[in-house]
Every structure is written in C-alpha cells, then in structure tokens.
Specification:
There is one protein chain. The chain has 250 residues and is an alpha/beta fold. The protein has helices spanning 17-28, 40-52, 67-81, 105-131, 155-175, 195-199, 204-208, 218-229; strands at residues 8-12, 32-37, 56-61, 86-89, 137-142, 179-186, 189-190, 216-217, 240-243. The chain has one domain (8-243): Rossmann fold, CATH 3.40.50.
C-alpha cells in the first residue's frame, strides 16, 4: 500500500481550484508533489505556497492534450523524485452547458481532449512507474456528477465525464490489485472554473434543493482525494465517489 508520507504525487490542473487544494493537502501530509498545469504563474504560486509551508514540490508545465508534454511530465517526476506513486488526473474544462445541437466539433474535441483523452494519455504514460515495485499504485480521476446523470453539463462535458468513470472502472479491472483506481464526482464546487456559473445563478436552484443546501469548497474534495490515496481506502477499488452535497440522492 502507498504511504502518503514520502510518496510522489502528480496532480494535473493543480494551479487553481480543486487541483491546487489537492496539491496543498498532499504536500501537507509529507508527499512530494508534482504540480502540473498550463498556467505557469499559477504553478509558481502553488509551489511557493507549498515551499513556504515546509513541503516539497516542483512545478511542471504540462498540456494533457499533447502526448509529448504528457511524457515530459512523467519524465520530470521520475528525474526529480524517482517514481510516481499517486496520479491525480484533475485537469478539466467546461462546455457552457451546450446541448448537442449547439456543440461544434471544435468544442467537442477540445472538451473530450482535456477531460478524457488527457486522463488516458497521462495514466498510460505513468503506468510503468505505478506498477513498479511492491507498493500499490494509486490513480484518482476527477469525474463529476455529470458522469452519472444528464444535466450537470452540456453534451461534451457529460460525455467526457461518463467516459472518465468508465475508464476508471476498466483501469481497476485491468490492473487491480497492483493499481487502485477510483474517481471523484464533485457537484457544485466553488472554484475559478465554476465562478461564472455560480454568479449567473445557473446552478443555484439545484444546489438549494440538495440536502447540504450549499456549494462545497475545493478543500472538501481534496480531503476525499487524500482518503482515497491512503491506506484507509485500501479496499476501495473502481468506485466513483460522490462529493455533491446529496445532489444525486433522488
């Protein structure tokens, strides 16, 4: 089983939002964190925060839609820390709730490229290291409630997140017990990516009807990721864990 202390954790989409919170959370537990994003300024801020808090991290510019960039992320992690113990595929983009008839092929390809193709490519690139040695590798994929039901996004986003959950299950099936793979399905989370939707009131009526009756903070999702990577979750394989305030309870 992976010990979080002294483990090597790669987090994509880590310059802001849930990814930033995950990077900080794991660094606070003693992990060496590889902070991956296309936002170089954001990467620097997160790495500086981890350094200031006494943690260990490096920043890597990584575009999950670019195969060469993906390979470079894994190479940099291995060059710096020797391996990859935990991979968190968190990078993602929205589609403005566009229905099928209003979704262009360009938008479809962009959303699928980041949200699903990127998960596949980085997982495949990191697979040899995740399988290496006697310890169990861990993969955590950020899906969404839109990966379980319609209405949590548009056509491209919903399709991509359904795909992430399917990929997670297949990964668990193919490589368990050497790799423990799970997905997280957030509901309404206050992040920079969802700020405009929240400000516009587009999801407020649905949130008000959930048992929690509020949005979540990104730190609450990071806490679930930390649990799924820990030995306490050693019997949790191939699951898609809702962090939605009860959004899907009915």
């Amino acid at each position: 089983m992976v010990e979080l202390t002294d483990s090597v954790v790669v987090v994509t989409g880590a310059a802001s939002g849930m990814g930033r919170s995950m990077a900080l959370e794991f660094a606070g537990e003693g992990a060496s964190v590889v902070v991956v994003d296309v936002d170089d300024d954001g990467i620097e801020r997160v790495v500086a925060k981890i350094d200031d808090d006494g943690g260990e991290a490096i920043g890597v510019h990584g575009d999950v839609t670019d195969p060469d960039s993906v390979e470079g992320v894994v190479d940099r992690a291995v060059d710096e820390y020797g391996t990859v113990d935990v991979l968190i595929n968190n990078a993602g983009i929205l589609d403005d709730y566009a229905p099928v008839g209003e979704t262009s092929l360009e938008q479809w390809n962009a959303v699928i490229g980041v949200n699903l193709d990127g998960v596949f490519m980085l997982t495949k690139a990191a697979l040899p290291k995740l399988l290496e040695g006697d310890e169990e590798g861990v993969v955590i994929n950020t899906a969404s409630i839109a990966g379980k039901v319609a209405g949590g996004g548009g056509a491209a986003y919903t399709s991509s997140k359904h795909g992430v959950i399917g990929f997670t299950k297949q990964l668990s099936h193919d490589y368990g017990p050497e790799i423990r793979a799970n997905a997280i399905c957030p509901g309404a989370i206050e992040t920079g990516m969802t700020e405009e939707l929240i400000d516009a009131g587009e999801i407020e009526p649905m949130v008000a009807e959930t048992p929690a009756g509020r949005h979540a903070q990104s730190e609450e999702v990071a806490a679930v990721a930390l649990f799924l990577a820990s030995d306490e979750a050693s019997f949790v394989h191939g699951s898609a864990v809702d962090v939605d305030g009860g959004w899907l309870v009915d």
